[in-house]
Design goal:
about 70% helix; 3 strands; about 5% strand; 3-stranded antiparallel β-sheet
Length: about 200
């Protein structure tokens, strides 16, 4: 034979409210502790806890007179308390949904500009290549500083070409940053992070 399942907290609360509604009387705790187990099947050890939960939720009124607490409840007040509790829970659900929607929009917005597009990759790769070339040419210039003037002049011209190319690509990068800032209202640090642009990125001297 299967063991009889005990009452849930909500079932105990409902049955205890029936005691008040059916009798329309005022009780002390000791009265409820006698009535609840016998007429409603509520375990004696849980009566006080269940009653206090109803008081906390304004379903049952409690007044201390002398050294004793007196409890009572009326259907109209209980209905109002339940309605208030339901409205409170509905508001919490609504607030939670709104926070979720706000967070979802923030996440989607944060993703904008982080896509690893071919254009972005090509731009950064070409820019780095030109920077490396210019660095190499500068090193060559230093190496031949004391050498043949014709060789130095040739290196100088190559260096100028490389510098102009780097400047053009730098212009392109700043143009993209400006467009992104206007389009999505992102600040410079966020754009730099999204496109992998170094913090000290600027035109070369």
């Amino acid at each position: 034979m299967s063991k009889k399942k005990g009452l849930s907290l909500e079932e105990k609360r409902t049955r205890m409210m029936e005691i008040f509604f059916e009798s329309k009387d005022v009780f002390q705790l000791k009265d409820i502790e006698k009535i609840a187990p016998k007429s409603k099947g509520i375990a004696p050890m849980t009566v006080k806890e269940v009653l206090q939960s109803l008081v906390d939720d304004n379903m049952v009124d409690c007044e201390r007179v002398g050294t004793s607490n007196y409890y009572w409840a009326f259907p109209s007040k209980a209905l109002h308390a339940r309605k208030h509790k339901l409205e409170e829970l509905q508001k919490q659900v609504s607030d939670a949904k709104q926070r979720k929607a706000t967070l979802k929009k923030a996440v989607e917005k944060a993703k904008v500009g982080r896509e690893d597009t071919k254009e972005r990759s090509s731009l950064l790769k070409e820019l780095q290549s030109l920077r490396d070339e210019r660095t190499q040419l500068q090193a060559e210039l230093e190496k031949y500083r004391e050498c043949d003037p014709e060789v130095i002049e040739q290196i100088r011209k190559s260096n100028v070409v490389a510098k102009e190319a780097v400047s053009r690509w730098t212009d392109n990068v700043f143009a993209i940053k400006s467009w992104t800032k206007k389009k999505f209202s992102f600040d410079d640090s966020r754009i730099d992070k999204a496109f992998g642009i170094p913090e000290d990125f600027d035109y070369m001297d």
